[in-house]
Amino acid sequence: MPLLFALMSIFTIALTAYNLSERALMEQMERNGVYLTQLLSRKIEGEIVHYHERNELIEKNLLVAGKAVLAVEDQLSDKQLSNIRDLFGVHEIYWYSPEGEILYSASGNYISWTPNPGDPIDHFMSKHKHKDVYVEDIRKSTERDKYFKFAYLRNDDGSFVQVGYSIDQMNIKSEKNILQNIVERITDNEENILYALILDENFTAVADSDIDEIGVDYSEDEHYQVVLSGEVSSFEWYYPQIDDYVLEVAVPLFFEGKIIGVVGIGLSMEETKKNVTLLTLMFILLAIIISIGFFILQRKNVITPVKMLNKHIQLIDTERLGVNPLNPSDNKSFSGLYETINQLFSKLHENITQIHNLNEKVEEMAYTDYLTKLPNRISLSLKFDEFVGHNQMIAIILIDLDSFKEYNDTRGHLYGDQLLVKLSERLLSIKDDTTFVSRFGGDEFLLLIMWEDHAQLNAKLQKIEEMISQPIFITGEELSVEGSIGISLYPNDDKQLDGLISKADIAMYHAKKSGKNQSAFFSKALQNTILMKNKIHDILRNSLNNNGFKLLYQPQVDVSTGEIVGFEALIRLKDHQISPAEFIAVAEEHGLIKRMGRFVIRQTILELSKWKVVGLDLKPIAINFSVKQINDKGIIEYIESLLSEHRIPAKYLEIEITESILLENDSEAIMFLNRLKEIGVKIALDDFGTGYSSLSYLSNLPVDKMKLDKKFIDQHLNESGKKIIKQLILLAEAFELDVVVEGVETIEQVRLLQELKCKYIQGYYFSKPIEDEQIREIHSKKYDIS
């Protein structure tokens, strides 16, 4: 019976030790696996966000380069494309005819090349023929063994430009390559991880440490189906590559708050099984020693040590696998066994430490910006939630460096990275319990500040501005940095972080547009202004593409005879009551003024042509000319071609300019106006008396007329101020210029101008701007000005 009892005890202890140790170690392994996989998922999410941000910047630059080509379409050449390519840092630019033939190339190669059926360019011409803009994903060139990313922008006549980056030169990887690198890196660096894989929302493997498994369909796997619904799944399965079972942990992969796939890693169970076996052997050895002692030692010398050992074993923390060594000082009988168990715990401690270090590395990658080591967007979101919990007001501070792109372009990206690191170290110095500093992306930093009153917040902002403006030394060179700052406030402006960041971005954009190197708070009025500008921009684009503009004409009258001597053409929207003062500024800001200017020129010359057809005498029509139209390099040739096509003498077209043209580029503007004069076009200086009018302008500018602005007339056309107007008229006569007075609304003003011997007047007293059909009714009209 004692022997049978001893054997049964050994068997029971071995079985119990095996089950307990296996359950404890497997539960710990599963928890660590879940935590590790979730950190990996957040790292992948961060990489996807970074990839999309960089891809968005690349696409934006391709489109900007393409728009630059469209802007000079009338002067295209291989050299022109080469200059634009170098200016915007792209690698390829080709200009195609509407039929798909390459007409110009930045490299001078592939001229007259045409795409074959099924070629991506043929795909753009056929399947996307209604799109003005199209951007491809990264693809391999059909002509070279290289990868490119191309964008296409179509012109009005069907011709189009192709702009591209060489992926090899930019060291850009596709999203799938990025994901594949992540799974390969984690399996190469960690011995316990046998494999890793990423599935998309269709359960197709898009990345796998086993390359042969990429593209495999796992839609029938119930474990992954559960994960895609938002749960975590862990399971054991037979892994043929090692001829053993592995523990796989799968978690959801998120992007922008949505589940877009599954991340899974396979953990080796070999070490765990060894530890289970080792623990079991230790307990079996313990049982054998107890049994031997049962037969050899006296009862009193065995029972007490066994009870004490049992007590120590029960104190083992199977949840944490605590590694505090057991103390055998009170139990000399089993000191050797204690030492063996302590050695086992020491090895377990080493394994746990390795897993903990790995977790810290993955967590750092998930929550920290790779370059500056500042917290990233994920950390920012967590800190915002923490700040909100304090029930205090929070300021969101968005900092954007004003000239960072110039440093990158002129000194290289490594120089720009050093600048970001230096500035990050400086900003980090203001971090405290109420201030959180993070990198938002690119050259933007985002700060969270808890504040109690505006004085406290303004003091903090002033400190930030002073900190940014202080010189930064990079490789011994002193560098001056400027930044535009936008601020939004929680909970006044918004209660959600995304909304607050968006509003801070609006304020920052306003600060940058207002002259840079300053800060601005978000306001509803600011938001409404931007929304209105965006709305007007959309209306202008749509109107340009759908014949949404028209011209009105206001007559100019000879003050001595009452006869109409000419007209001023004024552009208006057909279907929207938006004043030109509003939409002209938006058109200039968004680069639409060139197309609008050409529309005005074309319609004006067409109107003169209509007069010829119906037998009306030709009279000059004046059109307003924006400073931005000087950059329309083909505009003079465009005017010449239209005048020639419709056989209209150039003297019947009059261009009205303002002095602001000279403020932009004095010499270039005068050269431009002289070219207009050479072809016979008349030049009038508009809004005289409201800007920077001086004698030097009248002596330098090749103008034929001087127009006095309505505001100036309203102020001075009276008995007390008429001497000023008289002097201006005499001044114009000295320069052999005709004078046109705008904004005449009363007979009293007419008579004063007659008295001052003004030659021409224009205003509501005679006529408001009228439609072109009404011109025939008043064309030969003689106004009563007696």
From TrEMBL:
Record domain GGDEF: where: 392-524
The protein, known as: EAL domain-containing protein
Subcellular location: Cell membrane
CC annotations in GO: plasma membrane
Keyword field: Cell membrane, Membrane, Transmembrane, Transmembrane helix
Record carries keyword Cell membrane: yes
One Pfam family cited in the UniProt record for this chain: GGDEF
Membrane topology: Multi-pass membrane protein
